[in-house]
Design a protein that fits this description.
Number of strands: 0
Radius of gyration: 27 Å
Distance between the termini: 37 Å
Oligomer: single chain
Order of helices and strands: HHHHHHHHHHHHHHH
Mean pLDDT: 77
Length: 347
């Protein structure tokens, strides 16, 4: 078309609506507000069916991720429901990391019979599994460790400096409240909110407001050290056992994209439909661009890599289409098979 048709009139409105949705996600707004912004963007793109289809897929993905069910949104999305990406490599590494650490600590607990062993296993199990899905597990574990250290210190100070002056259980609870409220200050700041959450959690976990007060200072300190050792061990595991960061996640994404090309060229697992392969490629490419931005990668262009994968994959699909055609002679079939083998080896 001419210059006036290059950019639809609705494009600025769509961009603003998507920026609103991104801002709502950053502020952890209610899911209904995020979905409303996505619906507004899809409505503004009504004159561009291709753009509206992409926005519909994004909206359905957001609904699934946020746990919002809406059959009408699913009906607006054309095509079958498919699995866009599964990171089997990271899942296997997380399983080996967490399983190995827990087996080792469990064996130590069984052999020593340490009374604080359950607290150590509890903290390590939660931290080594829950935070495996984070973008940078080692970074978040550093924040969690700081918060839990302060939470353990607060619990020990409350137990041995404040609670001995209490005469009733309600007084124990009231004396504990100032320590809990101290967590509101770091919780209100973006950079310390993760540690503040664990500060409150560990403070409440180690505090047992009941009279008469039992146990010795050594037992209390031992429990506190066991609880804090959980995130410390998980942090060491994230740094030394299959460490994960933005660069490594980028490499795993590129490996998944290339591996799918190899499978397509080899003809294993059946021939994927072009639409499914394109959807997976687009999804992985968006994630690759995101990781490149977070890591500050400047040595290669994710868009260029995506175009290269798209060109090779399209060629493979075309060769397979020709190879499976009914009007192909025996010689042409051998040539096509040779080209597929060479493409697989080149990938």
């Amino acid at each position: 078309g001419g210059p006036d048709e290059a950019v639809p009139a609705e494009a600025p409105g769509v961009a603003d609506a998507l920026l609103d949705a991104a801002g709502l996600l950053e502020r952890s707004a209610p899911p209904a507000e995020v979905i409303a912004a996505m619906e507004r963007a899809a409505a503004l793109a009504s004159r561009d069916p291709a753009l509206q289809d992409v926005l519909g897929r994004f909206e359905a993905s957001f609904r699934d991720r946020l746990g919002v069910k809406d059959d009408s949104a699913r009906r607006r999305v054309r095509g079958p429901r498919i699995v866009l990406h599964r990171d089997w490599i990271a899942a296997r590494q997380a399983a080996l990391r967490s399983g190995g650490i827990l087996l080792l600590l469990g064996a130590v607990w069984v052999m020593t019979g340490w009374h604080a062993g359950p607290y150590l296993l509890l903290g390590t199990a939660v931290m080594s599994t829950l935070f495996s899905t984070w973008e940078d597990p080692a970074w978040i574990m550093g924040q969690v460790l700081v918060g839990q250290v302060f939470g353990a210190i607060g619990a020990v100070l409350c137990r041995w400096l404040v609670w001995p002056h209490a005469g009733a259980e309600i007084t124990l609870v009231l004396m504990l409240m100032p320590f809990v409220l101290l967590g509101a200050l770091p919780l209100a700041h973006r950079r310390t909110m993760y540690g503040a959450t664990d500060y409150c959690m560990i403070l409440l976990l180690l505090s047992q407001p009941s009279l008469p007060l039992t146990g010795s200072f050594g037992q209390t300190l031992s429990l506190a050290l066991a609880v804090v050792a959980g995130p410390a061990i998980a942090l060491a595991g994230f740094r030394m056992i299959y460490p994960a960061d933005a660069h490594r996640r980028m490499r795993m994404l590129m490996h998944a994209m290339v591996h799918e090309l190899e499978s397509m060229a080899a003809g294993s697992g059946g021939r994927p439909r072009a639409g499914i392969w394109r959807a997976r490629l687009e999804h992985r490419l968006l994630r690759l661009v995101r990781w490149a931005e977070k890591s500050g990668e400047s040595r290669f262009s994710p868009a260029g890599a995506g175009l290269a994968v798209l060109a090779v994959g399209s060629a493979i699909l075309r060769l397979q289409e020709l190879y499976g055609g009914s009007g192909v002679s025996a010689g042409a079939a051998r040539d096509l098979e040779t080209h597929l083998d060479l493409t697989r080896q080149a990938v």
